[in-house]
Each structure stands twice: as structure tokens, then as C-alpha cells.
Design brief:
Layout: H1 14-20, E1 30-37, E2 43-45, E3 53-55, H2 60-70, E4 74-80, H3 97-109, E5 114-119, E6 133-134, E7 137-138, H4 140-157, E8 161-164, H5 171-181, E9 190-195, H6 202-207, H7 228-239, E10 244-248, H8 254-263, E11 268-272, H9 274-285, H10 291-305, E12 309-312, H11 315-324
Parallel strand pairs: 1-3, 1-4, 1-12, 4-5, 5-8, 9-10, 10-11, 11-12
Antiparallel strand pairs: 2-3, 6-7
Helix pairs in contact: 3-4, 4-5, 8-10
Bound molecules: ligand PBG and zinc ion.
């Protein structure tokens, strides 16, 4: 058989496959999300997310050591306060749960670990919505004023970066301004630029006790049908001074990661959310799929789509897979 083109020539051995691999990734780009709750000596399993735990700040070093052992040195912190109220007071309290967890980690580890804090109100409000309610509606501008306070208090506690996930309009610019005015000019903002109203957040809402008491988040999070609007959101955040843009969730929105990767020069992050993690865990528990293989392949897909940064509950295991050379 005469054939000039034989793509298999470049698949023959591991070395040549390594030579022509198009998607290269590194542990440096992984961020591991951690849940903190108020109290002492707590490491509580999260039922909807097998293998994930809620920690009290006094046990922060346990999970941080684990991350460092795997070569993961960036974390994203979420907090679950004891007391919730209408206006999410604990979210911007100097001694709120995320502020305390941040302090505990930064005091002990300094520049060894990079701490990103999630800015949102839903874990802190009694109604579980991501902002301040007027009747049944989340008031955008009033919420933004609270988000500014949250960002400043997190930075004051030692956060290296803040990441607003609330989806209010104008919040990136407003948080930037508040950080600058308070002496935090060098704290970057990673914006959840296009965050969709997604069923994939289900397990997280149990983990963070943040499900809305009524209604849903469709009046502020994005409609999954809309891709052009996601680009618009991203461009607005870029104009407002975002340092990193994010698409969330990941696996069901790979098309938008790709599209945005062509349109922005900012680093591009994606968040492989709780539902993506728990679907794999559930299917593995049912004996349906191979956990390691599925994890690796999904991860590659996110980077291949154009993500520079991956936030994932599998961060430690993915780092190991990179170390072994199975991916990366
Ligand atoms: C808070 C927030 C959520 C997630 C990250 N920040 C939940 C939500 O919007 O309901 C989801 C993360 C995940 O599912 O892993 N707004
Ligand atoms: Zn929220």
C-alpha cells in the first residue's frame, strides 16, 4: 500500500509521543479548593463529595501539608460560618472563618503557599443567596458594596488573591477600587467571569451549606445557552481590571474556554466544580468507570481547550499523575 501520510509514525513509541504532545501542563497551574468551618479539631467528611473534608482553622496545616507533599501550592478557601444572617455579616468580619483560616495558613507557611479567597455571600446569608435581598431579589449595587468589604477583609487577613464568584455586575471594578484604596494594590483579582447557573454545583451547596432557601440563582448566574454573553462578561471583567478570567463549570463549557482563549491575553482559569468531581466518584463507586483514567482524560481536555489554570478537587491526584508522566 502506497501512502505518504502515516500519522501513526508519530505514535510509535513513548518518546516520540512525548515529543509531539500538544498539551503541556504543570502542577504549578493547579489550585485546590478547601472548606473551612468554625470550631476546633474538626475534619468532617463531606458526604456529597467523597474524599473531601471540612476543616476547622486549627487543623489547616494537616491539609496544607498534604497539598505540599503532592506539589500543590495554591489553594482556594471557602468558609462556613456558625452564624448566618440576612446580610452575611460573617463574610466581612475581621475574624470571620475564611479570614481566620487565611491567617492560620499564611502565618505558618508564608510564601510557601498561595492563598486565594472566594468572595461571595451565599455561605454567609441566612437565605443562601449570593447577595443582599430586597424582597425576593438580589440587589446588585448594595451587594457590590458588601463584596468590597469582603475583599478588603480577606486581603487584610493575608490573602494573596481574591476571586469573586457572586456574578454581580460591576463588582470587579468596585473590588479593585476598594483594594487599591486600602493599600492592597498588588492583590490580584481572579474573576469568575462566566459563571453559569449550573446543576453541577449541587454537591458544593451541601458541602458549604449554601443552597438558596427559595428560588434559584438564574437572575444573576448565566444561562447555559449563552456563549456570546459569556464573552461579553469576560470582556467587561477585563476592562474592569480583572487579572485572571475564569470559566465555570469546566467540562460542560469547554467550547467557551476555547473561545475565550482566542479572545483574551489574560491567564485563563477554569473551575472543575463539585458535580464534576462527584459524578466521577459516584460512577467509580458503582463500578462503572476507571477513576484514574477518567480523571486524567478530563483534565487533559480542560487544558487542551485552552485553560492555563485548573481549580479542582482532584488537584493532589492530578499532580501525582503529572509527576508520573501519565499526563502533562
Ligand atoms: C459561591 C460558589 C459556588 C461555587 C463556587 N463559589 C456555588 C454556587 O454558586 O452555588 C461552586 C463550586 C463547586 O460546585 O465546586 N457562589
Ligand atoms: Zn454565592
Amino acid at each position: 500500500m502506497e501512502m505518504k501520510n502515516r500519522p501513526r509514525r508519530l505514535r510509535k513509541t513513548p518518546l516520540v509521543r512525548g515529543l509531539v504532545r500538544e498539551t503541556r501542563m504543570s502542577k504549578d497551574s493547579l489550585i485546590y479548593p478547601i472548606f473551612f468551618e468554625e470550631g476546633e479539631n474538626i475534619k468532617a467528611p463531606i458526604e456529597t463529595m467523597p474524599g473531601q473534608y471540612r476543616y476547622s482553622p486549627d487543623r489547616a496545616s494537616e491539609i496544607i501539608e498534604e497539598c505540599l507533599e503532592h506539589g500543590v501550592n495554591k489553594v482556594l478557601l471557602f468558609g462556613i460560618p456558625k452564624e448566618k444572617d440576612e446580610v452575611g455579616t460573617q463574610a466581612y468580619h475581621d475574624h470571620g472563618i475564611v479570614q481566620e483560616a487565611t491567617r492560620a495558613i499564611k502565618t505558618k507557611y508564608g510564601d510557601e503557599i498561595y492563598v486565594v479567597c472566594d468572595i461571595c455571600m451565599c455561605e454567609y446569608t441566612s437565605h443562601g443567596h449570593c447577595g443582599i435581598l430586597h424582597g425576593q431579589e438580589v440587589d446588585n449595587d448594595e451587594t457590590v458594596a458588601h463584596l468590597q468589604k469582603i475583599g478588603v477583609s480577606q486581603a487584610a487577613a493575608g490573602a494573596d488573591m481574591v476571586a469573586p464568584s457572586d456574578m454581580m455586575d460591576g463588582r470587579v471594578g468596585a473590588i479593585r477600587e476598594a483594594l487599591d484604596e486600602n493599600g492592597f494594590k498588588d492583590i490580584p483579582i481572579m474573576s469568575y467571569a462566566a459563571k453559569f447557573a449550573s446543576y453541577y454545583y449541587g454537591p458544593f451547596r451541601d458541602a458549604a451549606d449554601s443552597a438558596p432557601a427559595f428560588g434559584d440563582r438564574r437572575a444573576y448566574q448565566m444561562d447555559p445557552h449563552n456563549g456570546r454573553e459569556a464573552m461579553k462578561e469576560a470582556m467587561l471583567d477585563e476592562e474592569e481590571g480583572a487579572d485572571i478570567l475564569m470559566i465555570k463549570p469546566a467540562i460542560a463549557y469547554l467550547d467557551l474556554i476555547k473561545e475565550l482563549s482566542y479572545r483574551t491575553d489574560l491567564p485563563l482559569a477554569t473551575y472543575s466544580v463539585s458535580g464534576e468531581y462527584s459524578m466521577i466518584k459516584g460512577a467509580v463507586a458503582a463500578g462503572l468507570i476507571d477513576e484514574y483514567g477518567i480523571m486524567c482524560e478530563s483534565t487533559v481536555a480542560m487544558y487542551r481547550a485552552g485553560a492555563d489554570i485548573l481549580i479542582t478537587y482532584f488537584a493532589k491526584e492530578i499532580a501525582d499523575a503529572m509527576e508520573k508522566g501519565d499526563i502533562g
